[in-house]
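Researcher: Please predict.
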Amino acid sequence: MSDNTYNIPTMSTGTMAKQLTELYTQAYRNHTLPFLPSVALWGPMGVGKSTAVKTIAENLSKGFQQHIGVTDIRLLNFSPIDLRGIPSADINKEFTVWLKPKIFDLPKNTPHILFLDEISAAPQSLQAAAYQIALDKRIGEFELPENCIVICAGNRTTDRSVAFRMPKALANRLLHIEILSDFDSWYEWALNHKIDKRILGYLAFDNSRLNAEPAIEELAFPTPRSWEFVSNLLQITEKTPGEMHSLISGCIGVSTALEFEHWCNVYDKLPNTADILTGTCTMRITKPDVIYALTSSLLSYVAEHNETIRDEALENICRYVSQFQADFSAMFFRGMLTLNGMNLRLSKSPSFSAWMKKNRRFL
């Protein structure tokens, strides 16, 4: 939890993305988008700030039924000249004009997000140029399109990362949000972005492993970002986590990798998913770690086959999961309700309706 050292609101990535999506949607429809302040997101490395900005763009694209893009500028990769452009003589060779950088060739008729990442790690000469973009929606003599949304992100000075303190005069011109690691928001995102089901199960069982505070000398440690790396590794090979120990350790650290590999052995004890779908599974499980593994596995299956899974199979899954202790089955149903269109489909499930009558308070 934050001690609110920075005197700014703290939000999960999910809450932040939802509130900013609603704000930008209303402002665009009211033609007041140019009057909104630029946003500064603060938080530890790997917490999901960049991913949340992409989520905002996805949400806006769905709401406006048109593509809303993100131009991602990693400030450490630029120089002040890169941002302002190259000086050149005018046609009469009397004055200097600036050639606008290609990165600022942004859409004029639709909203677009200009994302200035790692702003706190940039040297002060570069921050000055970036701040002009954030504050004035312009750089040098070039103005950004009026529907351009500017969002900045950076690490806090307490995050054991390179970070320069922001001048107070500048800070007073931005809307600040501190992003906290939040398992529920991450789980909803992960479920809809096909993160490996074994990772979902492991982190559902032990939320503390989602984002760990690294020791001073540690280079590999678990964060939402590094878990996504592990998921990518697992999905491009048929090797077991144990066989990929060195590569996984390079993402999340040796000790966490070993715990995760032991957890993955639990999956050998799971009932066959096909038997649950057909309603023929008679295997009953009671161990918490196995239940976590199974519910995460089933959630991943439904998320992947959301458009094709039959109502009968969905009912069989609900009937099977309903046998678990209420807090376990509630975790499964909460995950289900985050999936597109699943709210309506679950309302037609007799097993889910029966479970809700007894356990609604758990949701």
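Model: Residues 22 and 60 are 9 Å apart (CA to CA).
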